């Protein structure tokens, strides 16, 4: 855009009534892109997901693979900051989503306070539903299984998508993005 921020079109997918439904579908879509699951030789893809109050549903934007860093050793993509969806001009960007081609864990940068968007919580005035801003991350195992994770910017809880539900597995303990896993929880079930 003229202000230098990256904008993506939408929707690529949706409507989804629950964040978990969006995460399940987005994981498959995003990790199927060329290079998205190629380990250390792979590429990251970024997208936005947004909420439409009249539809009471979530949508996924189209993807971006524009790098955010000149460092060729770091797997990154620039997270878009705006969505252009003429059919949902009332859209509220709730969060970002990205793939990891080489590991299933959020980076410290992903979890740091510097990566948070403000505000971290929204209220749908029509329904009273509270929406927390989450960063979604997807990783495809060599077995083909897609793993989806969410980082809630408001509660600072990291969750793993398991059997269609986001299950808390850890909490960020400081502004640098250090993660403390909950007792008996890990990135894998």
What does this 3D model show about the protein?
Strands 2-4-3-6-9-10-11-12-13 form a nine-stranded mixed beta sheet. The protein has two helices and 13 strands; from the N terminus they run E-E-H-E-E-E-E-H-E-E-E-E-E-E-E. It has 189 residues and is mostly beta strands. The protein is 9% helix and 35% strand. The protein is globular and about 40 Å long. It has one domain (7-181): Cytidine Deaminase, domain 2, CATH 3.40.140. The chain has helices at 19-31, 108-111, and strands at residues 7-9, 13-16, 46-52, 57-60, 82-84, 92-99, 121-123, 130-132, 134-140, 146-152, 157-162, 165-172, 179-181. Strand 3 and strand 4 (57-60) form a beta hairpin.
**What structural category do the secondary elements indicate?**
mainly beta
- The name of the CATH architecture is 3-Layer(aba) Sandwich
The DSSP helix count reads 2
CATH class group? Alpha Beta
Give the % helix: under 10%
As a percent range, the share of strand residues is 25-35%
Query: Which overall shape is indicated by the principal axes computed on the Cα atoms?
Result: globular
Instruction: Write the element-wise H/E pattern from the N-terminal end onward.
Output: EEHEEEEHEEEEEEE
How do the strands line up in the largest sheet? 2-4-3-6-9-10-11-12-13
CA(first)-CA(last) distance: 41 Å
Q: How many discrete domains?
A: 1
What would you report as the Rg, rounded to the nearest angstrom?
Answer: 16 Å
Main sheet?
9 strands, mixed
